[in-house]
Amino acid sequence: MKYLGIDYGTRRTGVAASDTGGSMAFPRRTIVMTTRDRFFAELLAVAEEERAEAYVVGLPLLHDGTDTLTTRQVRNFVERLKRRTTLPVYLMEEFLSSYEAEDDLRDAGLSGRALEAVVDQQAAVRILQSFLNLPESRRTPA
Q: In what order do the strands lie in the sheet containing 140-141?
């Protein structure tokens, strides 16, 4: 099964895709928020290009499992996404994926604008790879 991983942000959203076997995640694109309609049109177009069969959205929580403002924004995004697609949507709890993605990219020698251009994609890769590493019985549908 092929999945599309999403690191949702109110300004930029990182997108990653799995291989067709659903075992490895790869960066695909960063979508810059302009209007809601354009954003969803681009996201759905990426899913179609990738032939995705499901979405995996990172759900940022505090370490004690409680919600933040960003958590509520992601939950609202997921509800809007579910109204626009027939594909299944899964949630993947995440903690500091963007910070870890920055560390990954700095370790790879990126900085400044080069890092900023791909950090959201790398966060989406981390979210999606974490999901792919879970047994199917532990995957949480939205």
A: 25-32, 12-18, 3-7, 54-60, 89-94, 140-141
CATH number at residue 127: 3.30.420.140
pLDDT above 90 covers what percent of the chain?
69
Return the amino acid letter for 6.
I
- pTM of the full predicted structure? 0.88
Structural domain boundaries, residue 95: 3-141
Contact yes or no for 132/17 (Cβ under 8 A):
no
Least confident segment among 23-27, 40-44, 111-115? 111-115
The count of structural domains within the chain is: 1
Of how many residues is the chain composed?
142
In single-letter form, the type of residue at position 90 comes to: Y
SS3 sequence, 19-42? CCCCCCEEEEEEEECCCHHHHHHH
- Exposed / middle / buried, residue 9 (Cβ in 10 Å: 0-12, 13-18, 19+): buried
pLDDT, tens digit (0-9, with 9 covering 90-100), for 87-98: 999 999 886 566
